[in-house]
TrEMBL record:
This is FAD-binding protein. Pfam families: ALO, FAD_binding_4. Residues 13-180 form the FAD-binding PCMH-type domain. Keywords: Oxidoreductase. InterPro entries: ALO_C (IPR007173), FAD-bd_PCMH (IPR016166), FAD-bd_PCMH-like_sf (IPR036318), FAD-bd_PCMH_sub1 (IPR016167), FAD-bd_PCMH_sub2 (IPR016169), FAD_lactone_oxidase-like (IPR010031), Oxid_FAD_bind_N (IPR006094), Vanillyl_alc_oxidase_C-sub2 (IPR016171). Residues 228-247 are annotated as: Disordered. It comes from Myceligenerans indicum. PROSITE patterns: FAD_PCMH. PANTHER family: D-ARABINONO-1,4-LACTONE OXIDASE (PTHR43762:SF1), L-GULONOLACTONE OXIDASE (PTHR43762).
Amino acid sequence: MRNDVSVNWAGNLTYSASAVARPGTPDELAEIIGGSGRVKALGSRHSFCDVADTTGTHVLLDAYDDGRPAVVVDPVTGVASLRAGLLYGQAGDALLEQGRALRTMASLPHISLAGAVATATHGSGDTNGCLASDVVGLELVTADGASRTLRRGDADFPGAVVALGALGVVTRVETATDPAFEVRQDVVVDLPWDALLAELDTITGSAYSVSAFTRWGEDSVSQVWLKSRADGSSSRDTGSGDGGQARRSARDLLLGLGARDAPGPMHPLAGEDPAASTVQGGVPGPAHQRLPHFRAEHTPSTGAELQSEYLVPREHAAEAIRAVRGLGRTVAPLLLAGEIRTVAGDDLWLSPFDGDTLALHFTWRPDIDAVRTVLRDLEAALLPLGARPHWGKIFVATPGEVAAMFPRFADFAALANRLDPRGKFRGGYLDDILPA
């Protein structure tokens, strides 16, 4: 990943910030935020749009130390309090040392906790919500430089978790965890489209996390990654079971539907070195080293790319897949990889997952004008089905159209104006979507 914090990870966006600050203590952070200019937290820079932009000071929390251990686990509840600047891979390592595990992971272990939560970033699994759905508390510094803690049950909490950085700088994230568990990953190739559509619910429910990769113009689904709990459970229920049986049931199901075993380790993008991918072939390992698609020690994906994603209500899943397949000839020339995942619903105001959801992800070649042209066609097909765009990726719907997709958006805007009446944390996309 790029070290230059003036640009995002993919290099398609140069930030507008006039300064970058790395506070080391709570007092230093309060002083920065309490100043007169605009401020915005900047995480791992894995957003492809300007949702994290500011004309003022970008605050990085990679050196921030509040005097507490970076990871603290409550031995009774299993809730972990984590420094917000940690990367998910780092958090997974530290939790494993204490016998705990994150319940779900995104494709990348390289992303920061606070940034992933703020944009409703997600992994996959019928029973797995987005990363924000496991959050039970937040500590943040608001516009006056004061620290505030919000926890599940507080009136403002559902509006404060997926908040796009609009309420303040989050310094700690409290999240539910599970006892440490292992995952094994199997990959099959060339699953017929008819089989996927006919058995979609069975396929996505066959393992703890399922991802199907396609370039949409192909005759079959090129790869399906099956991530099964080694204890035999395909959900968050941690009941005992034969891990080998869990592997057989998911893999054999797809083989019976016409897929084939992968010939060896695979990368989601054709032609890329699979050494960057997490371990496959059914070899069990810690959950945080299998649930992502990429290893923490490798550069994820290609870097020179753009990304879009649309989150479709589960009841329209098959219709959405057919609609994108119908655009296959338009999509395929620009596409590096497409991915189909599932996500469980939650109650967070700006989460696009207000019910069980099908996620359609697109990794594009770095041609922004051509991508925007294709996105107009995709959105014309998907938005009428209730699709919502991922906050951190590229889309062409107007701010007004996006705001109207969220029934609690007016409540969120009121919360942002109450906690940040002078717009200190605005900038970039927030200037467009939030009323002045």
